[in-house]
Amino acid sequence: MKGQNKLFIAIVIALVLGVGIGGIVHVKYPESAEPFSKNIKLLGTVFIRLVQMIIAPLVFTTLVVGIAKMSDIKMIGRVGTKAMLWFISASLVSLFIGLMLVNWLEPGHVTKLPIQDVASADELLKSSKSFSMEDFVKHMIPKSLFEAFATNEVLQIVVFAIMFGVALANLGEEYAQPVVKLFDIIAHAILKMVGYIMWFAPLGVLGAIAAVVATNGFEIFKVYAIYLRDFFFALGVLWLVLLLVGYLILGNRLFDLLRRIKEPLLIAFSTTSSEAVFPKLVEELEKFGCNSRVVSFILPLGYSFNLDGSMMYMTFASIFIAQIYGIEMTLGQQITMLLVLMLTSKGIAGVPRASLVIIVATCSMFGIPPEGIALILPIDHFCDMGRSMTNVLGNTLATSAVSKWEGQLTEPLDKI
């Protein structure tokens, strides 16, 4: 635990240094801000790429081993059903909280945002036009496992791994055991690598934060203060709901769980990447006492279907853009939008800036000018910090809750 605390302190120091260094460059050397940002951002790129390097093999091996070891197909179905019930319920609650609070706080009616150059949203507008049921199927079903590995398409890897794991579970122990043992060894070796890679996290945090502050300065916080304030208040409400449900299921063990995931939460917040902490989450959840088979089954599914922070942001941002343009939506239209977002958001795993792509597509569908996305692009990075951290919390609670419901939550491994 001492090593964990050292890493946490190092990340906090890196966060503060990043803000300070970025601020100095923005104020004292504005002409150098762009090249500085481009270069220091490489620190974050190195960290993210190191993590991305191990995500595909880790998801594949842990999921195959988890399912193959279950051997009982009924158990796989039972765990999967409980997980999907949690994901659907959490998604609906997240969307509803975003809808309710954006209507109550009305940031679009009181915030005077500077009109941005619509050209900045062109790329997203083009991306959204191609979003269709065909895209959903392509993102879900791989035409080649090797292509899915090469492009880190987690959802496609999950689909193949589930089918492969079920096939192994039905082969019989004599045939399956050597393969399962090999994948188990590979998974443990990759988890060992996690410990090495996490020590690059402070550098990644420093680079990511310094780059953003150097380019945008502190003014951006003032200009968008009301929008950010209202959005983070809404996130706070969502956290309160998630933690309350977590406490009802886990009791006092919730506090131990939060203590264990403080580093992943901070890394996700700083780097705006919930993917960056996936390997660390696997490790911490197993140490917390969650069954390794349940962890390896639920967590990859959660990263595809259970993005609570992103879900809440979609309703919040969509209605916010409508408010900016003075478009009044009836309660029926807003509930329809909520259900549309509930369905379309499930096909966005692996799509860059996925939340924004879905927001643009949804705005077009409901007669809201999709160019309005340009209004929130400048601060999307800061909103993404909160979204990513909330996604990590949601998936952590989902995995712990299903472990508890299955009677598979034991005492913490480091206390036995």
From TrEMBL:
GO biological process: dicarboxylic acid transport
Top-level taxonomic group: Bacteria
A GO cellular component annotation in the UniProt record: plasma membrane
InterPro entries recorded: Na-dicarboxylate_symporter, Na:dicarbo_symporter_sf
UniProt keyword list: Cell membrane, Membrane, Symport, Transmembrane, Transmembrane helix, Transport
Membrane topology: Multi-pass membrane protein
UniProt-listed Pfam families: SDF (PF00375)
Subcellular location: Cell membrane
GO molecular function (one): symporter activity
Spans traversing the lipid bilayer: 7-27, 47-71, 83-105, 154-172, 193-214, 226-250, 319-344, 356-379
Protein name: Dicarboxylate/amino acid:cation symporter
Protein's organism: Chryseobacterium phosphatilyticum
Lineage of the organism: Bacteria, Pseudomonadati, Bacteroidota, Flavobacteriia, Flavobacteriales
